[in-house]
Hints:
With 198 residues, the protein is an alpha+beta fold. It has three domains: 2-60; 65-91; 97-189, Dihydrodipicolinate Reductase, domain 2. The chain is 47% helix and 18% strand. The chain contains six helices and five strands, in the order ααααββαββαβ. The strands form two sheets. Strands 3-4-5 form a three-stranded mixed beta sheet, with helices on one face. A two-stranded antiparallel sheet has the order 1-2. Helix 5 (112-124) runs antiparallel to helix 6. It is elongated and about 75 Å long. The mean pLDDT is 82.
Amino acid sequence: MLRIVNRVLMGLCGLALFGFGLAATLAALDLPRRWGFTPPSWWSWRGPDDVLLTRADRVQWRAEGWWWPVVIGGLSVLVLLALWWLLAQLRRKRLTEVLVDSGDGSGALLRGRAMEEVVTAEVETQPGVERARVTLVGRRNQPRVRVGLLLAPQAHPGDAVRRLRAEALEHARASTGLPSLPAEVRISSAKHAAERVS
């Protein structure tokens, strides 16, 4: 999710900067007059001596009662969104690789995404588990697993967690040669439609 938000924000910022840069270049070099085209009527930046916002544009709303609350509210929302984005960047990201003891002293690297997919596939075959999401976090020589389980309405959470620990996580730990593989499990239940009684 965060990767998509980052790409969308970077794309929008890039487009906005490109557009303003292009408009500034056109106006500064007086290209509309030289090339014989007219900018849109709402665009006030037409030549090298023009400014983006005239004084009349800057002060026209100051006397209105709604102006300052809207400005302060809009800037507050922007600051909160920027802080959320910054904190999201600083969160520990998923582990990209796991160091596996290969027996020769140097070790081998296993792609974290591959290990996540294998554990997810095994967990989803367990009875009562409708969907699973597995994420590796931590350091590559001491990974931790975060598991999200969506259980069927009739499933027992205790049984699902015991099977997860004894089967999928134990298989992953043994296959990578790790001394331990701590896990944090979050469980939610799938909603089911009410049964109709006639």
